Amino acid sequence: MSPTRYRILGQVGQGQFGRVLCARDRNTGSLVALKVLNKRELPTRFFLRELRLLASLQHPNIVSVQTITYTAKERYLVMDYCEGGTLRELIQHPVHLSFQQRLQIIIDVLKGLEYAHQNDIIHCDLKPENILLTYTKQGTTARITDFGIARLAEEAGYGVLGQGDTGSPAYMAPERFYSQHSYASDLYAVGVMLYELLVDKRPFIGLPGELMTAHLNEVAQIPQEVPFLLRSVLKTALQKLPQKRFKSATEMLKAVSLAADILASEDSNYTLAPSQQWPEHSCHLNLQQEQYPSPIHCIHIQDHQVYLGSHNKVICRSYAADFPAPGPFQEQQWQFALPVKDLLWGGSQAWVRTIQGNTFKQPSRLHPLSLENTPDSQPCDLPTVENLSGIDWRQNNKIGWRPEQNWLAITCGQQSFEAVQGAELGGQALLQIYQWPQMQPIHQPALIRKPNWLFVLDSHFGVAISVDEDQSHFQGFTRRGNGFQPFSMPIPLQQMTQSVANPYRLLAVSQHDPQMAFLIDLKPWRLTKISLALQPEQILPTAWGYVLLATHQVLILSHEGHPLSHFQLPTNPSEKIAVCACAEQGFMVSTWLDQSATLYTVDVRSHLPEWCRQTQLDSQATTHHKTA
Ligand SMILES: Nc1ncnc2c1ncn2[C@@H]1O[C@H](COP(=O)(O)OP(=O)(O)OP(=O)(O)O)[C@@H](O)[C@H]1O
């Protein structure tokens, strides 16, 4: 087996026995997890003996071991890749999991276990870290990993509590502390996980020694609020004597499935201990409102300046400090011959994109704005950088651009291409990459699946994301226009945005469930589900996370998707042509309703935790340092 078969994309984790890498199998195109197995801790003789057995475990709720591969230095276990992370991460993330979703995870685990036990394999180290998640059209699937590894390590003499006691004490059945194990030991561990999912804490907490005493002697206290059927499941699963527990995984699976069905039909009102889903903020919301003579189509906020685009005018307001600040103390205006389409920030200055007429043959233009040279309120037509001829910006063309990078990517669709090349594109688009700011094409246009979004990731790579009825496809490409094999996820997405702090991280909302968002890490490929409990209409990235705007509501999330604040807005940001722009400590919304334009300025400083304000100060210090 050649190790060059796998192209390593990055490290996803670190376990007791070594690193776990995300890699692409060059033969099949699918993603795999490469688990680096330390030769000292898991000698080959133990390992090879079990490999055939582990590889024979093929079940939708078990992470399959595909094979083993070597390099001169290392030995890897090749496994199915699970992009959703571990159950531990899911529990720790303040995602609101419904009661039924929690039970479904346990049902998945029991199905995998039933199959493994029927094949005479005991896990011996079941815990949320060994339950991995994948996303399918139907939802989340839980899969058990690391079958047999604990027992192998135990035989090799490695343990948590000393020789021969490999396992995690919080989930270890009493007999495991005496180095004994049976199928019932696995069912006890599932009982602890079920308890944790239902009660939001484990039955016993403490240091390994204290845990051992508790598992051996103490009776787990099950809160009265847990529905009777599940209390009885927990009591049986957590029995001290293995013979008093469920006779098999099949029996426990039946009991949990029955409880899930009955409780679903009763519409159980059992509420779990509340997780920190919505931080309460009683502080006053600082909001200013101003009527505007005409609709504002685009807003851009940059440090002390706010740019507002309205028809064929751009107004720049200068403030004494970073927005939001009292003022403005100065206002400048530029007038263009053509309507302003949007505002971009490239390098150290703002650029205005204007569009012309109604036919795609007429080019759009980029105009640099210079604050120094333009007299107040004097209309001026600034020089055009380049005629992007043949590119019709109104035909849903996409632009990927990060100010600090010296290139930008543009795609144009069917109509423009036909006009330029006289050919049919089908569902594809033409990708063109330009040097910035010279606007020289870097390579011949390449055909890619027509994207919904285009992002520049760094000085070499970009990604185009396209969405069809039931999938989202992520197509990486280089600055030279070479494409990589795409990643797909079985969920069509909407409203995608790129993180300010980590360009390889995207946040998007599910089309099927608009109250569900996904944090998408491109390198290595990881998905984190975030339940929002509101339906965002716009997502704005900031230096410390994201601002999500919904009807009369705002949710502020950290980079990791943790909710930082949630408050009501007296206006609905989706009113007609609402446009938003975000600064680090506030945002602006413009609305257009009944022929009347309103511009709102929202200061969120008092809603942010201390560390966000610190991030803001740090980034200011870095910017000032750079400028100096
Ligand atoms: N098949 C996989 N697909 C995707 N990520 C994985 C996969 N296997 C492991 N990981 C990631 O790697 C991390 C480390 O996994 P690993 O199984 O080595 O350690 P662990 O289960 O946390 O601890 P232990 O070493 O005690 O088993 C996991 O937390 C998970 O994030």
Task: Describe what this molecule looks like in 3D.
- This is non-specific serine/threonine protein kinase.
- Belongs to the protein kinase superfamily. NEK Ser/Thr protein kinase family. NIMA subfamily.
- With 628 residues, the protein is an alpha+beta fold.
- A 5-stranded antiparallel β-sheet has the order 1-2-3-5-4. It has a 4-stranded antiparallel β-sheet with strand order 8-34-33-32, with no helix packed on it.
- The chain starts with 5 loop residues before the first strand and ends with a helix.
- Bound molecules: adenosine-5'-triphosphate.
List the helices and strands and how they pair.
Layout: E1 6-15, E2 18-25, E3 31-36, H1 44-55, E4 65-70, E5 75-80, H2 87-92, H3 99-118, E6 131-136, E7 139-144, H4 149-156, H5 183-199, H6 208-217, H7 228-237, H8 249-266, E8 286-292, E9 298-302, E10 305-310, E11 313-318, E12 330-335, E13 340-346, E14 349-354, E15 365-368, E16 398-401, E17 407-412, H9 414-421, E18 428-435, E19 446-449, E20 453-456, E21 461-467, E22 472-478, E23 487-489, E24 493-498, E25 505-510, E26 516-522, E27 525-531, E28 538-542, E29 545-550, E30 553-558, E31 563-568, E32 579-583, E33 586-593, E34 596-603, H10 610-627
Antiparallel strand pairs: 1-2, 2-3, 3-5, 4-5, 6-7, 8-34, 9-10, 10-11, 11-12, 13-14, 14-15, 16-17, 17-18, 18-19, 20-21, 21-22, 22-23, 24-25, 25-26, 26-27, 28-29, 29-30, 30-31, 32-33, 33-34
The structure holds adenosine-5'-triphosphate.
